[in-house]
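Researcher: Before we compare anything, I want clean individual predictions. No alignment, no superposition, just each chain on its own. First chain goes here; please echo the sequence and then give the structure tokens.
Model: Echoing the first chain and its structure:
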Amino acid sequence: MKKTNKICTLSLLALACFNTNASPTKTINLPGDWFGEYPKVEHFVPAYNAGYWNTGNAHQWYNNCYNYAANRTSPTNAKSQPGYASGHRGFDSNRRSCAGVMEGARRDGFTPVPRSQWASKKADTSGTKTLMALVLAPNRDYHWYRRDGNGKWSHKPGSTAVTNLDNSGRIITDPERADRGIYTTFCGYYEGQSSILLHRLQIYITQNRGRTYVTGQFRSRSNDSLNPSLANTVEQPQSTVTLLKYSGRENPSVPISQLDDYLKYRLSEVAALQDTSIIRKEVAQPGEPLLPGKLGYSGILIDDVEGVYFNAGDKVLISEDEIKVLSQNHTQSHTRMASSQDQGQGIGFTKSHLLDLSLEQDLIDFIEAK
């Protein structure tokens, strides 16, 4: 019987192990970069890493389900839309149907999966391409899921948190059988590709490595450049009130300055109470997201960048007779674009009961009437 030794080398980035016979005449095979295999392009399916997306700041607010499924963040402060990068109107191009979104995604560069291959593609988890699933809330909105490296599915409903749970709180193993709320129409599957150029053996983050460019600014078909009316527009930061109801589309929003005087007064009263002992405030538990990932209506989000009623930069969520306040000071100290596996853990916000019980519905009615 031959005697076999195992030799391990430890570097700053990886532990490389290999076997060699005790005989000095045998050749030792070393890791690939010593034989000139680098640089090389590594293709992969992204891991489930909610913490990369659930940062509680603009990185979370401006990326939607399409950005997440494509594994590519928005290049602007606008949620990416299928087809916009290729001059196609996507969801609005074909009576707000599956066909419009599917054609937009195809033109952006994603590969449609024929219906005859749906079962085989779902059963095969050994490839390096990312399987994406498209669903529709008829004539209302669309939503994307993606399959992660662990074989399970996850999604990012609009500005809310990335999650691997469906609307019933179950792990998503099949988007066709998941509880999708109002997104009752299943449209089909697409494939995308994520990759990274490696110059050496190294550990890398698999998020935001999608090869297909997506954007929320419409590109003109004639010259493949940004629509001049959009490209030349410089928006000044202003405090807004947003109705969180869509996953893919932009949510309806109005500047605080456009609210009627009665709503302004009621908001000022709610804000003033946050600095008193009249209401009982609680600090969010570790891992509790400001915007839980759930399809459908999520609440009213006040982004007070100007500090009209709250502190400048505060994010305020009004939902189900509760008010949550995320301070800008907390956000700056907890922005983590790294590979933590939590869902916003450590992003501190306070929550309390909303005393003005009709304010939420009155804000919804005002925004939808605009």
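Researcher: Okay. Second chain, same rules.
Model: Second chain and its structure:
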Amino acid sequence: MVSRPPRHSLDVLPGTRPGPFSRPAPSRRSVGPAPPLRLRTPSAADHLTGRRLDGIRRQRGRDDGVQHPARGRQVVHGHGRPSLNGFLHAAALVGTADVEVAKFAELAIGWFLPAVVGASAVAQAPRLDKGDYPGEQGTMEMNLNALEHITRTSEERNVSSDQPRLMKELAERAIAEGYGGQNYLAVFELLKRPTPSS
């Protein structure tokens, strides 16, 4: 019989027992510091000024609400803050196991966000346009279990559980609306609508 780690342990942190689903960190050769933002490049400048988004609007031949550079900046910066908050929360959580933020950043920012999150988002973007969220490799219900685990672990480690709780509630809403068997990207359908009034 395979022994399993404690239900709510941070079993992937240094100094704790590795669980059956944990993966070893990449070698130091594959993990480097996050590249600096180079505002001198046309691509970065376009994103930060909104010209790229405004160009997309013109190419599609319709007014999709991105008419002014300031709105473009709001769109880009608006999605950056939740990403940053996710990193900050994760850093606070692993900090309870004496992991330095600088070391954690090498893995989270230098590898995980661009290689896993970023690559996956780009690959799945066409499915978002089609409203297609197949759950063969992971369902909303599976993701809810993970978010419940992160929320409980945050509480047990005495760090803020606000962010994982918000994501957990979003997953719960998605399941209640019938997306339980689809993958986590189905929360996109909720995010496209106004927040229900309480």
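Researcher: What stands out in the second chain?
Model: The mean pLDDT is 74. Additionally, Helices lie at 42-49, 51-60, 69-95, 101-130, 140-156, 162-179, 187-191.
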